[in-house]
Automatic annotation (TrEMBL):
Name of the protein in question: H(+)-transporting two-sector ATPase
Boundaries of every ATPase F1/V1/A1 complex alpha/beta subunit N-terminal domain copy: 56-120
Gene Ontology annotations for the cellular component aspect, listed alphabetically: proton-transporting ATP synthase complex
Start and end residues of each ATPase F1/V1/A1 complex alpha/beta subunit nucleotide-binding domain: 177-375
PANTHER family: ATP SYNTHASE SUBUNIT ALPHA, MITOCHONDRIAL
Taxonomic classification: Eukaryota, Sar, Rhizaria, Cercozoa, Chlorarachniophyceae
Length: 525
């Protein structure tokens, strides 16, 4: 009799191989569900006509923020699942009999035995002008009660690590905060750290930087709040509204109740939103508040082995998103302010290995409500920033030497005084310590005066002019210098080009002007 297998044998094909590789089943619903050309309406109609049930799995086990799900044999890695509580999960690992899903919700929000449905969708984040003025969770859903998002594009979540792109130029971001503009300049495309002992002073300084850029039409902001309490989140939103800058800001929250997965994903989501502005020729400033919570979440995920090492993005990997693109690519930029505590993991040293520069908030100065609250000792011990513009560098070199000597003398005087040693005259010790306090106040004082006037005022102060200035008059000192220069040398009040070096004779003139100012404003009083 005719045997159809003989032809396959003649072709050298094993009959057993054909049998073993036969289709075990044909799931027509899977094809319908995964075909992008099939609309939701048509899919529902076909399901009704064919009476095909939804593929439903169940939660076999829960371990922290990971769920082991059985019964789903057609899902793909990176696909979103939906638990019966309405919480979403993300497929991160597929095995023969089950899949592992990262729970995108609070720990304990999903229980064993619950049903799990596939969505056929991957995790994607809304980007574009439509996210401005909105508050989102880590999955991109609005949580501000303002309705659905409009005018947005969806961008797939970034699993692969971004390669660093070197910034094409050094363009400063002037903030009217001396600690940044003079000592630790911010530049577009850079990564800057703000370290403190308390949580809120860091946030307060970062928001002060945001406020300084309110008039910059090409600058947009992304605030990423990780591990914040509901009260802290409300306080931050109120400040953004008060500064009238919320319409240029996107806020992403993964609060203290969010699971480790959400806290880990939050900065990556914020980076994807800022990348849109950068890649379309605009500037984005990202406030990452704070990195310690992200690091804790990352450590948790590493210990749980939920993600492969290649899927885990460290802070350094996240930092690769930030750069300034060349004109040929639109000249957009994305800049980061990374906030955290000095006494938490990761260590300051570890972070400084990939940050461009950092400032350190002093606990005592912060307690006095001084913003930014940076101590003279931290400025005196630091090294000059490579991002300083020529104009600023000329002043900084002269001012910095005086500040370092002053700090050193004051520290020696404190030690000698504590040991009962007459190192120098007691009156001189008091003068030096008083000068340190006054120069700290001046450095931390906010000013709307032109940068060159602020630099001249600091230069005058470095000549010990502040010793004769009363504590209450420190806040009006800069304005008095501006008025004095306007009367004596009005040409110095005209805008200077920061990228031009200052001729040496200018400082000779400033030395003479400092003496005249001292006679007029200090000796006369």
């Amino acid at each position: 009799s005719h045997n159809p297998m003989r032809r396959w044998r003649r072709l050298g094909v094993s009959v057993s191989a054909i049998w073993n590789n036969r289709p075990r089943h044909f799931n027509i619903f899977a094809n319908i569900n995964e075909n992008p050309d099939v609309t939701e309406e048509k899919r529902t109609k076909l399901k009704t006509q064919l009476d095909i049930p939804e593929r439903v799995g169940f939660v076999r086990d829960i371990k922290g923020c990971a769920a082991r799900v059985e019964g789903l044999d057609h899902v793909q890695k990176g696909e979103l699942l939906e638990f019966d509580q309405g919480i979403q999960g993300l497929v991160v690992n597929i095995r023969k009999n089950d899949v592992t899903a990262a729970i995108l919700g609070e720990e304990g929000s999903v229980g064993k035995g619950g049903e799990v449905s596939p969505t056929g969708k991957s995790l994607s984040i809304p980007v574009g002008s439509g996210v401005l003025g909105r508050v989102l969770d880590v999955t991109g859903k609005p949580i501000d009660g303002l309705g659905n998002l409009k005018d947005v594009m969806m961008r797939d979540f970034e699993w692969s690590k971004v390669q660093p792109y070197p910034s094409s130029s050094i363009e400063p971001i002037f903030t009217n905060i001396k600690v940044f503009d003079v000592f630790r300049p911010l530049v577009k495309g850079g990564k800057f750290g703000i370290f403190g002992f308390l949580d809120y002073p860091n946030t307060k300084l970062a928001l002060r930087v945001v406020e300084s850029q309110r008039a910059n039409e090409d600058m947009y902001f992304v605030y990423i709040g990780v591990g914040k309490s509901r009260l802290a989140e409300e306080k931050i939103l109120a400040q953004l509204e008060e500064m009238e800058i919320m319409n240029k800001t996107t806020v992403v929250f993964a609060g203290d109740g969010a699971g480790a997965v959400l806290q880990y994903f939050a900065p990556v989501v914020g980076c994807l939103i800022s990348d849109f502005f950068r890649d379309n020729g605009m500037d984005a400033l990202v406030i990452f508040d704070d990195f310690a919570k992200h690091s804790q979440a990352q450590n948790y995920l590493n210990e749980s082995s939920m993600f492969r090492p290649s899927m885990v993005q460290t802070l350094a990997d996240i930092g690769n998103h930030f750069c300034a693109l060349p004109p040929s690519m639109g000249a957009g930029s994305s800049t980061a302010l990374m906030l955290g505590a000095r006494n938490e993991e990761p260590s300051v040293e570890e972070l400084n290995s990939f940050l461009d520069s950092s400032v350190y908030i002093d606990e005592k100065l912060a307690a006095k409500n001084m913003v930014p609250g940076v101590a003279l000792r931290d400025i005196a011990k630091s090294t000059p920033s490579p991002f300083q513009l020529p104009m600023v560098r000329e002043f900084f070199t002269r001012i910095f030497a005086v500040l370092r000597n002053t700090h050193s003398l004051a520290e020696r005087a404190k030690v000698a005084d504590s040991l009962g040693i007459d190192l120098i005259e007691e009156e001189s010790v008091e003068d030096e310590l008083e000068f340190v306090d006054k120069i700290q106040t001046l450095i931390n004082k906010r000013s709307d005066l032109p940068l060159q006037i602020q630099l001249i005022a600091l230069y005058f102060a470095s000549k010990s002019l502040l010793i004769g200035v009363e504590e209450n008059d420190i806040h009006s000192y800069e304005q008095s210098v501006a008025d004095f220069i306007e009367r004596r040398r009005p040409e110095l009040t005209r805008p200077w080009k920061p990228d031009r070096e200052i001729p040496g004779f200018i400082f000779d003139d400033l030395d003479l002007l400092a003496q005249e100012y001292f006679k007029e404003h200090v000796l006369s009083h």
